UniProtKB/TrEMBL annotation:
This is Cd(2+)-exporting ATPase. It is found in: Cell membrane; Membrane. Belongs to the cation transport ATPase (P-type) (TC 3.A.3) family. Type IB subfamily. It comes from Mesobacillus stamsii. PANTHER family: CADMIUM/ZINC-TRANSPORTING ATPASE HMA2-RELATED (PTHR48085), CADMIUM_ZINC-TRANSPORTING ATPASE HMA4-RELATED (PTHR48085:SF5). The lineage of its organism: Bacteria, Bacillati, Bacillota, Bacilli, Bacillales. CDD domains: P-type_ATPase_Cd-like. It is an enzyme of class 7 (translocase). The chain crosses the membrane at residues 56-73, 257-277, 289-313, 597-618, 624-646. NCBIfam families: ATPase-IB1_Cu, ATPase-IB2_Cd, ATPase-IB_hvy, ATPase_P-type. The keyword Phosphoprotein applies. It is a multi-pass membrane protein. Its main location: membrane. Its EC number is 7.2.2.21.
Amino acid sequence: MEELERAGAFENLRLFPDNAEAPVGKKKPFWQENANLLLSGAMIIVASLYDEKSVTAILLFLGAIFIGGYTLFKSGIKNLLRLDFDMRALMTVAIIGAAIIGEWSEGAVVVILFAISEVLERYSMDKARASIRSLMDIAPKEALVRRNGREFTIHVKEIEVGDIMIVKPGEKIAMDGDVTAGSSAVNQSAITGESVPAEKNVGNEVFAGSINGEGLMEVKVTKLVEDSTIAKIIHLVEEAQAEKAPSQAFVDRFAKYYTPIIILVAFLVAIVPPLLFNGDWNEWIYQGLAVLVVGCPCALVISTPVSIVTAIGNAAKNGVLVKGGVHLEEMGMLKAVAFDKTGTLTKGVPEVTDFVLLAGTDERKLLAKVAALENKSQHPLAAAIVRKAETVGVPFRQKQIEAFASVTGKGLKGAVDGATFHIGSPAYLNEIVDGGIPSSASDKIAALQAEGKTVMVVGADANLLALIAVADEVRESSREVVARLHELGVEKTIMLTGDNRGTAQAIGSLAGVSDIQSDLLPEEKLAFIKSLQKDHGKVAMVGDGINDAPALAAATVGIAMGGAGTDTALETADIALMADDLKKLPFTIKLSRKTLAIIKQNIAFSIGVKLLALLLVIPGWLTLWIAIFADMGATLIVTLNGLRLLRVKDK
């Protein structure tokens, strides 16, 4: 490894073993990382205080151009020599043209705007790298293991397949494995996206990074740390980011054709008349230079970043963080949008949806007793019942609870007001109630479960009293947003979830999506996004969880829910809805389409003005002054047109 590092010393390469943790370098302060951009901007501001034609102003503008645009020129000139006509080559031609006509301020503004777009792009790449680091931190680095009758805590890299891992209540599970003793409810939403904790008993599989509930479990390790489900998700994200074709901005695609054409036309104007028609070399070289100046794409180059920066600023003001102009452009070309279910189309928090009385009793009094018991539990479903009682306003906190016990994996029991209550799964109450649960109640339970709800049964002194249904509720805005997307021309809206088919169908029909895919693991979500891209081209993925990260990374545009989203989802995505508001999605598409339209308008207008000026070459009337006027006028108009994006509102 030392020899490899020495071989890569020229490129300052550092190497780490495949399963080692690369050290995270200390991040430089913003001012230090962007010193050239800040200095260049300061020089432009100072230069604008002087007369634009004064020596001081010209020197300051020239300094700003070289400090802010050094790397741009270096790659731009290389690209021109290689005949690779991209945005950087176009920028270099624009600045050379600005220098020829003495428009130093215009050249400096071109450089600073491009430098700002570069900073945005770098920020986006840094966030992509941070997403991998945050994934690595999800599973704990150590675990309590029993070997040869002794218990000790060791690093996960030292754990071997077959080791027995002891997982205490409330702890994160460090390794994938099978439960060999104990039972508990495990929150595995990070891995599978299921909204309700999964009951785990002997023989069930558990995943690294999931959170144990109230029960003590012993888990036999089945996979090494580098083979765990969370490790697979990390690899999927890395591969998706590597495979994702680099997006090209519209002006980049345009520059491929425009730049060589304008250089060729200028060259032909300079040499064809003297060679073929005995024209004066001095006159036609001047005309060729004037053509190059007219073709100088300052207006084109300025109009795009002005439009993009204005649109990104407007989006941020409305609670949408866009990590680069390309992502904003691509939002307007979407043909399909895939949604995660939990926390995206739904609120991500279980709520009581039904309280069905089965015996003649007062609903508020029964709810108070149930809430008093559930208040002693740490289960997420118990929290839903307590929230319901608080919302309704029933007094439950002052009630005395006796002989409280949690029946792990089944439910709980305790005495309230002299009666012994049992609350838990239908299977648990079927054992408690005299004669089991009657068929009428079983039918009602089945109907509620078919709607995607988790049903708990309440019994007291071996009598059945009530059914409580809990579900992750659909956001009020989901159906409206999906309908609006279809109105905007999105061909397909799909819900992707790790939940079971019954729950998925219930939520999907309420949200109004055109397609539903259930029981999906992270790699299956990723595969589905790739198949969508083959069928529809531009595809967005909207998600909030770790399990969505591979799909977010692979989609044309990854969109994270900002309020509810995990750090991993926010860092992997290209766009974040910071207010956790799905209604911002149609607004962002509308803003994107308006941005693309304005960029195209600016390009069409700039070319129109240049063509009119070029027609003056035929009678030989084109002068540098006309060229300067055409370029400056076009630059001013397209800039004002770009600023119209500030008027796009979130209605």
